[in-house]
Each structure stands twice: as C-alpha cells, then as structure tokens.
Specification:
The protein has 195 residues and is of the alpha+beta class. The protein has a domain of 132 residues: Ribosomal protein L15e (3-Layer(aba) Sandwich). The protein has 7 helices and 4 strands; from the N terminus they run ααβαβαββααα. The protein has a 4-stranded antiparallel beta sheet with strand order 1-2-4-3, with helices on one face. The radius of gyration is 19 Å and the shape is globular.
Length: 195
Amino acid sequence: MSNLYKNVQLFWRERNSPEFKEIQKPRLMQWRREPTSLRIRRPTRIDRARSLGYKAKPGYVIIRTKVRRGSRRMSRPNRGRTGKNMATSDITSGRNLRNIAETRTSRRYTNLEVLGSYWVGQDGRSKWFEVILVDPQHPSITNDHRVSYISLKENRRRVFRGLTSSGKKQRGLRNKGIGAEKSRPSRNRHGNRNK
C-alpha cells in the first residue's frame, strides 16, 4: 500500500479527530438533501474502494446509498390487538444495513452486479454506504482476469444470495474452525441447532 492510501486509511480511522469532523459535517449536510441513491464520479474512500477491487476504468460504477438506521420503529405489543394495529416495521429481519444498501442498489441498477460496499458516514437518522457495481458485459471487465469471474452465470444476482462480504457476515460465515461447525451453509439454513 502506498503512502497516499495509508494516510487516507489512517485519516478515516480517526473519526473523532477535529480535522475529520470539520470535513464530514458539511458533507453530511449536503448528503441529506440528495436522493437516496446517487451515482458519484469517484469514491469518497479511495483506499477502501481499491481494497475491494475498484479500478478507475470503464465498467465500474460507484453509487452512494442512504439507509434508515435502526431495525424497528416500534416494538411489537404483547397485549391483545387486531392484526393491523401490531405497529411493527421491521426492515432488517436479521440483515445488516450494509447488505440492505447493496440489495436496494442492485434492484435499482438491474444490469450491474455488486462487487462490494463500505461505510462512508452516518447521523442520528441515516447511514450512508458506497456500493461498487460492475458491468458484467463490459469488455474491460470480461478481459480482466481479476474481476472476470463476476460475468459467469453462477455469479448472477449474487447480492440476493448472500455471496457478497456483507451477505456472508449475515449468514454467519465470518468464523471458521472450532466453534463454527453449525454456521454453514448459514445460520438460518442450519435451523435451531445454531441457537
């Protein structure tokens, strides 16, 4: 890793520093006024995007996506109610917000595949993620041996099958070896034995 990327990485790691807050505060004020999904010209965190496979060439697209924070608006009441008055709004259902941002972005840009994503900011109401999308039909992608796997048939709609990094985290696949025997193919698929 070059010195430039190393310095950018260290800058994003110190998120409580006055220098970082001075840059991030007006940035969030602008992002709140923008649409939920917005295509941007270049990554906000170039070090993180490059580590996930981003290249500054045709075929790669960066989308900044906003997701509401929190899992529910209200907890489910434990007394008698009619069905329509249960007043729950569960948006996560066991998924992390980064995976929700990836799936929503993929539904909007149907001809592209999700390569990865990373956090770029948050306030009291929302979180922002930048999603790296790849055009699997573009010649610069199919001719690049590092990313041409994404154009294969078995990688179609990979974000909806939990094959991205955030999807594997949600499926419980970050752990290996002793203690992780019941986490494959996923915690949900393995049933109550992993509870």
